[in-house]
Amino acid sequence: LLRSATMWLLLHSLLLASSLRSASAFPKGCYPSEEEGLKTFRCSHARLTEVPRDIPNDTNKLYLDSNRIPFLPRDAFRDLPVLLELDLSHNSIAGVESGAFRGLADHLHTLDLSSNRLVSLGKEAFGHLKAKVNLSDNPWRCDCRLQELLRAVELVAGSSAGILCHSSAQEEHVGKAFLQVMADTDFCNAYKRTTDIAMLVTMFGWFAMVISYLVYYVRQNQEDARRHLEYLKSLPSKQRRSEESSTISTVV
């Protein structure tokens, strides 16, 4: 009986030590839990400045909200093969590298990027992600890039009203919901027209430079020829004939 009790205490101590060692591996303010039968890892209000590396790979729900994360690098969540929900709201995210969500395309259901510092983001940042995305409350620049992004992703229901134009090429768009503006304005066609006009102006500029050079070259040759004729006329008749003969011989 004593031996059994000793073994039980030893086993309990080992389990407790293992648990403490595992917990100490997590960043300060982060802890695992289970919510509604789903493995959850919470790092809310943990003062993080980057995505932590020691996230359990069986995590289903990951909360990184209300931190100071400024950037999402490539493969930031690659080792989370069963992640369903990812909350990155209320951070300082201003950039997302292409491939940041690589490995999440087949299983991620929701992605929250609301209340960050996103101004412009290409659709390639999400790859083949099928998750519903919340992009509200960011200082967006309304342009063709944002239009292409919103056509490539599925937004969380009700979040589109929070995607406002913080800046735009046209002042009247500022402060308006981007999807409302898109109903009347095709930013990509406007961009294409602007690009075409710029190309035409550039081509015309080069053409004008070539013509100007040709005109200058012809006039310069004419001026040189005129000066040479005047020089020949100014010579005495005998020397002029000699010069002309010499010129003819040289030509022949």
From TrEMBL:
Cellular localization per UniProt: Membrane
Protein name: Leucine-rich repeat-containing protein 3B
Record-linked SMART domains: LRR_TYP
Keyword Protein biosynthesis found: no
UniProt xrefs under PANTHER family: IG(IMMUNOGLOBULIN) AND LRR(LEUCINE RICH REPEAT) DOMAINS, LEUCINE RICH REPEAT NEURONAL 4
Major site of localization recorded for this protein: membrane
The keyword Ligase is assigned to this record: no
InterPro entries: Leu-rich_rpt, Leu-rich_rpt_typical-subtyp, LRR_dom_sf
